[in-house]
Amino acid sequence: MAISVVTLERLPKYLRILKKMQSENINNVSSTSIAKELGFNSIQVRKDLACVSKTDGKPGVGFVVNDLINDIEEFLNINHSRDIIVIGAGRLGQALMNYSGFENKINVVRAFDIDKNKCDNKKIFLMKTLKTYVKKNNISVAIITVPKDAAQSVCDEVIDSGIKVIWNFAPINLKVPDNIRIKNEDLSASLAVLLNSY
Amino acid sequence: MAISVVTLERLPKYLRILKKMQSENINNVSSTSIAKELGFNSIQVRKDLACVSKTDGKPGVGFVVNDLINDIEEFLNINHSRDIIVIGAGRLGQALMNYSGFENKINVVRAFDIDKNKCDNKKIFLMKTLKTYVKKNNISVAIITVPKDAAQSVCDEVIDSGIKVIWNFAPINLKVPDNIRIKNEDLSASLAVLLNSY
DNA sequence: TAGATTGTTAATCGATTAACAATC
DNA sequence: TAGATTGTTAATCGATTAACAATC
After folding, report:
1. Where are the domains of chain A?
2. Considering the domain B5-75 in this protein, what is its CATH number?
3. Considering only the top CATH level, what class is A82-193?
4. pLDDT, tens digit, 9 for 90 and up, residues B1-21
5. What is the tens place of the pLDDT at every residue in B37-74?
6. What is the pTM of this model?
7. Is the CB of A9 under 7 A from strand C?
8. Which side of chain B, N or C, has fewer Cβ within a 10 Å radius?
9. CA A59 → C1' D22, Å?
């Protein structure tokens, strides 16, 4: 069965803990200890790990930290390096270019913008060079951080350039064709939950 | 019964559509049309709206746009203005200070940072002035955008200043006492879902 | 061995969707 | 009236949690 979105969302959290343990030379880990660290249920952790790990955990011992890291990275498809780009070199775009929380092999390599002045920065380029760059370097993932009103037309342009996967931070629901994968990141939804949860 | 998190997350999306309609002088809206716009199921939309709207929709007609906006805003507790602050005036912190996607009444009024040089900006202040400001202005919500390694100690300091609700963007799971509400925003989890969903 | 932890099967819980009578 | 749309009740679906035998 295909993995569920909720499990997918938990995997990076496991990965973070496992890498911390790795850096502390801890060899084995139990689902109980991972669960405790994250405030999850240990059965849930075990079920999640069962979806991705190639070797079973050992009763009484737990899992091998290094193996688990490899298995999760392979499953998440982040065991090979991957270049992604940002459209819109405003503050948010630049923040994402420098974000330290993405997995090691994910590199936000370039931002594109219509503003010539922004292109002084070594990693920011003019929007009109987008299509050539995407084709030449086989980029498939783009993050959109342009202002709301520009977002849909920029999105169309990005798709035209050959991008297949879009992560949208503009506060608008972008419409894309069926063959394009999109996630509309909704910060106001996150805030709504935070302000109102129990 | 308490509202579910998933419903809570959908409400801001409805609000966005409704406000767009309001600006276009559309008076009535059906759950079907909202659902279509967002790619949701119309029964789901109706159920969600039933949780928050004070007056029933009219069969054959739908809901009154203006009323729905008021009801959702009241429910989400964003019908009165609310000041929130940012801790860490890096690119992400500044991006959030200028983000246009939050609801009107939510104002990110100030950022705090340990770097004196950043405080040239009119809205950025030294960290050591945090506690006084929070107490004096009765601030209850803070966004943390400091580097990962500083995050937990900054978080402790923020709690000590009197903040009750924390929205953490640093890529680490912050630990807080039971009486503090926290959301660890996990961008690498979002990316994991995007790269691997179906 | 005894204790810790595993994976699996079954039970529970909650969210989504379907069906449908009511009504503007 | 006929068509559109509502709110509610029941069915389905999937995720979480509980129970437990197996085993290191």
Report:
1. 5-75, 82-193
2. 1.10.10.10
3. alpha beta
4. 789 999 999 999 999 999 999
5. 999 999 999 999 999 999 999 999 999 999 999 999 99
6. 0.93
7. no
8. N
9. 9
